[in-house]
């Protein structure tokens, strides 16, 4: 950690949507590093968030706060007094009603609350979905942090998740500029890896459908993947490193679906993994 950064032991970080797949790993790593964590969840008493209380250091340094993304006062109470915010909560769905408003207004709420609390930095979990959906980009162009998804195209193809994430990230940049909040964005590709939470999240279904037999064939397409532990660590690194700025694509390897099912078949030969 750079010498001019305060030590983790003296800092409190708010993680929104703390019980989710990626956020649970962020909370775990933050606690292991010695940070005090305020995790927002919609219902602290829901058994699906109980795993957080079992994390090492949780008894001493984790506080769960009740907040919905559309509940500004709840978010404000959770963020007030925090040094940094990791805004990871978001709906993950292609239902436009459930996706767009909470993703966009929730992000605005979090950044405004962080501005009021004078947080050092906000790290926002955006997505590759805010980056790559652009039919006008030539196939020869390498996708990098300068790319943005085309909103009209997302709308016309009903990719409401990508639309919501792109609009939310754009809103994050706009509000952060207006409120002079130091914002850094992580844009992960499809995230896989061990689950800390007891429920199955959307990106895990990408693998699960090949193991349960619900997918009989695989698509002729390519997908980039990254491990959830690397994504969580990336969030912490961009928070801690003063020179971090802008967007960071977070990706490990790109595989054709045929390569993916081959790997799955090798590790799980007893499962009905498609061969075509
Ligand atoms: N997994 C991936 O492949 C991937 C890739 C790129 C980016 N991301 C981004 O990473 C973030 C976390 O995703 P994840 O994969 O960890 O999914 P997840 O496990 O479904 O986590 C999403 C979290 O957001 C919370 N949330 C949803 N709507 C909310 C609302 N209205 N108010 C408060 N909290 C709300 C959920 O709370 P409840 O448990 O109460 O529903 C849950 O804790 C999201 O921003 C997602 O867009 C994920």
Automatic annotation (TrEMBL):
Residues 13-245 form the NAD-dependent epimerase/dehydratase domain. It comes from the Eukaryota. InterPro entries: Epimerase_deHydtase, NAD(P)-bd_dom_sf, NAD(P)_dehydrat-like. Keywords: Disulfide bond, NADP, Oxidoreductase. One of its GO terms (molecular function) is cinnamoyl-CoA reductase activity. The keyword Transport does not apply. Pathway: Aromatic compound metabolism; phenylpropanoid biosynthesis. Its EC number is 1.2.1.44. Gene3D superfamilies: NAD(P)-binding Rossmann-like Domain. GO terms for biological process: circadian rhythm. Pfam families: Epimerase. It catalyses: (E)-cinnamaldehyde + NADP(+) + CoA = (E)-cinnamoyl-CoA + NADPH + H(+). PANTHER family: CINNAMOYL-COA REDUCTASE 1, NAD DEPENDENT EPIMERASE/DEHYDRATASE. Belongs to the NAD(P)-dependent epimerase/dehydratase family. Dihydroflavonol-4-reductase subfamily. This is cinnamoyl-CoA reductase. It comes from Rubroshorea leprosula.
């Amino acid at each position: 950690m750079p010498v001019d950064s305060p030590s983790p032991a003296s800092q409190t970080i708010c993680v929104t949507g703390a019980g989710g797949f990626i956020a649970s790993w962020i909370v775990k790593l933050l606690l292991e590093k010695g940070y005090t964590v305020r995790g927002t969840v919609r219902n602290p008493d829901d058994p699906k968030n109980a795993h957080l209380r079992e994390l090492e250091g949780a008894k001493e340094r984790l506080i769960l706060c009740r907040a919905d993304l559309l509940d500004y006062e709840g978010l404000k109470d959770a963020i007030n007094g925090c040094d940094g915010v990791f805004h990871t909560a978001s709906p993950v769905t292609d239902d436009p009603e459930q996706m767009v408003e909470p993703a966009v207004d929730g992000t605005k709420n979090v950044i405004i609350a962080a501005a009021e609390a004078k947080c050092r930095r906000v790290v926002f979990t955006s997505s590759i979905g805010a980056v790559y959906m652009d039919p006008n980009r030539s196939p020869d162009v390498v996708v990098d942090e300068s790319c943005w998804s085309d909103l009209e195209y997302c709308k016309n193809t009903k990719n409401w998740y990508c639309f919501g994430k792109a609009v939310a990230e754009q809103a994050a940049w706009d509000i952060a500029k207006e409120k002079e909040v130091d914002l850094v964005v992580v844009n992960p590709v499809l995230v896989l890896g061990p689950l800390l939470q007891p429920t199955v999240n959307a990106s895990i279904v990408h693998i699960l459908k090949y193991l349960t037999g619900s997918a009989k064939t695989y698509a002729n397409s390519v997908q980039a993947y990254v491990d959830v532990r690397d994504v969580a660590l990336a969030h912490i690194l961009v928070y801690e490193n003063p020179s971090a700025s802008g967007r960071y694509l977070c990706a490990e390897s790109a595989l054709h679906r045929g390569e993916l099912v081959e790997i799955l078949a090798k590790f799980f030969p007893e499962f009905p993994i498609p061969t075509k």
